[in-house]
Amino acid sequence: MTAPLSAADRPVPPGSELDDQITEVHRRYAEVHPRSAAEHVRAKAVMPGGNTRSVLHFDPFPFRVIGGEGSDLHDLDGHRYVDFCGNYSAGLLGHSPDRVRDAVIEALADGWALGATHLRETELAEEISERFASIDQVRFTNSGTEANLMAIGTALHHSNKDKVGVFDHAYHGGVLSFGDPGSGSHHPLNVPYAFHVAVFDDIGGLDRLFAEPDLGCVVVEAVQGAGGCRPASPEFLSELRHRCDDRQVVLIFDEVMTSRLSFGGAQERYGVIPDMTTLGKYLGGGMTFGAFGGRRDIMAAFDPATGGSLTQAGTFNNNVVSMAAALATIRYELDSPTIDAINKRGDDLIRALDDVFTAADLPLWVTGAGSMLCIHAADTRLLELLFHAALSDGLYLARRGYMALSKSITDDHCERLVRCLEAWSKVIRR
User: Which pLDDT tens digit goes with each residue over 161-210?
Assistant: First the structure.
């Protein structure tokens, strides 16, 4: 669902009033999180910013989690939160799923630093190639970032060209980030590929992208996760597929997040099959996981028996913990009815929240698809207040408004979030 055309024109409370409210909500938050505050001071002495994952920071300081079960997290200060953030899409199963835990324990009984090929990696590769239409063969990594790096390198090797097509606001990993170029606050640590950044979901803009003679591959998310859960139109993805075919450019779908949108991923949902696909996050059942795969002729570059010259290093690529957890996830946790139910719940939540903000005449709106959704604001201070309003009611979403529903989130949880933000919307207008 896209933003109403008038959303950004709706009135915003006076600036000084918003600033005063933010100061107050930060004070109240700090008051009821004294142990997290002390831990933040301790952490800052040995980690810059007090963390080792920048997205987890928020003002005045983040709460410190000591456990999680099902839909809930609980912190040092005794607070419990319904987790709508879902570890930024990695937590699709909820917290501490039994079958994943059991699978990992069973795997550990046979040893874990094996340094050799083993049965579970083959079994997992078979499951993935059966599930995703674009993947004839697959190789494993330890994160989605690694998967995208390896896929790009493989695609450029296959095409024998050196330019990489990406889209504005895209995020394909910690070193492949293309956020708002005009914000002045985005300083990515990107790898030095020759990137051509085009406008997302703009068919007309593809003319300029494909005018690049050395374009070797294009990487795209069908729904931009970190870019605000912006869905591409089916027409855009179909045209992109056509252009890649016409120019013999390798099309890579980054499905690290979007593979949750259907049993066979966004490629199944949209009916557009890429040449290569990258995976990660939730498919590892909460463990470190990544994978890249695609057409057999492309992946043959790693097969020395057929003249392949590429190698892929990675001590823990086939580690038994991730292989066992991912097998349990695919085999026992995420069948088609389960995936469909989670995405229907997300679609319903998108509509309900958009209705709340429209009724309140606030410059807030919601975009997304299925279980991936994001609240946007004409003034980011409104998002700061909304985030803390939800948090004070025991509801945790990303500070930027992002949500990724897990299978542990229920209709009642969603209704509670809607009612919370409905009440907050009425107060913020006073």
Answer: 999 999 999 999 999 999 864 444 557 889 999 999 999 999 999 999 99
Three-class secondary structure assignment of the chain: CCCCCCHHHCCCCCHHHHHHHHHHHHHHHHHCCHHHHHHHHHHHCCCHHHCCCHHHCCCCCCCCEEEEEECEEEECCCCEEEECCHHHHCCCCCECCHHHHHHHHHHHCCCCCCCCCCHHHHHHHHHHHHHCCCCCEEEEECCHHHHHHHHHHHHHHHHCCCEEEEECCEECCCCCEECCCCCCCCCCCCCCCEEEEECCCCCCCHHHHHCCCCEEEEEECCEECCCCCEECCHHHHHHHHHHHHHHCCEEEEECCCHHHHCCCCHHHHHCCCCCEEEEEHHHHCCCCCEEEEECHHHHHHHCHHHCCCCCCCCCCCCCHHHHHHHHHHHHHHCCHHHHHHHHHHHHHHHHHHHHHHHHCCCCEEEEEECCEEEEEECCHHHHHHHHHHHHHCCEECCCCCEEECCCCCCHHHHHHHHHHHHHHHHHHCC
pLDDT tens string 259-310: 999 999 999 999 999 999 999 999 999 999 999 999 999 999 999 999 999 9
